[in-house]
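Ticket #4471: structure export looks truncated?
Reporter: QA, pipeline team
Priority: medium

Steps to reproduce: submit the single chain below to the structure queue and open the exported record.
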Amino acid sequence: MFRIDLAFLKFPNLTTKDKQQIQNRTNEIFEFKIYDLYSDTIVKSECDTCDSNLTSFQTWDERNIIEVESEGFWGRHFCEIPENYDRQISVGDYIVETDGTATDVAIVRETGKMVNLKRNKMGLANEHLPVLRRVFTNKDMERYKQNLMDEKAAEPIFRELVAKHNLEMKLINIHYQFDRKKLYFFYTADGRVDFRELAKDLANQFRTRIELRQIGVRDEAQKLGGIGTCGREFCCSTFLKSFKRIPTQMVMEQNLSVSASKLSGPCGKLKCCLSFELPENN
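Actual output as written to the record:
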């Protein structure tokens, strides 16, 4: 989520506490407006009264929920905080979470009323969610760093085994589940790949459960991230939750030049932002 930094402004008659309150309140209003622009389901007329909506809207789910992002299978999702958990959770914190069968790492992306607002607009309530176990400890950080090192060390082994089995697979990302009970390999390929023998070799090599997941080119761009031709981070890796079909009809309706080089993103598909200007898609 985008945020405003008011540190450059001078407030000679205000205390540090007052300055922080102004900063926090400004960001609350700004975050709501940004979400209003990008959400597919939010009503545009609410923008004029976003200040009151943010502070007084009724939530459908009474649980304490935060929005987090994981490098593994879960991706960007919501996480429940237990009622008896009394430690402050802030954006940017690393946490350990579990869904009852797996334990993984995530980074906190959003907290507070904005999470409830998003969930209301998405129609989510009382569904099963991963549960926070704890904010990272020093021991957790050591294990996390070790997992990252092992992921890096697994890359040449994976490529060697792919070559051994003559498979056409492009490795995108490797992720060790925090409890090391599963090792994910994300890849792209032109078609379906018979990786059964490869999976057996990987399991023998790493002595853990192996999951090979084929992803699309848009998912690849989302995982890798980058800067678009507009000079900003990819929409898919910042705020988009799902991918829409972008037909060429959208280009024609906006009277844009039909140039594949200008209208295609780094993933090779038509840019997601082509849908932003059409009323029925906003």
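Status: closed, not a bug. The export was complete when the record was re-opened. Leaving a note from the reviewer for reference: The chain has four domains: 1-56, 59-136, 141-215, 220-281.
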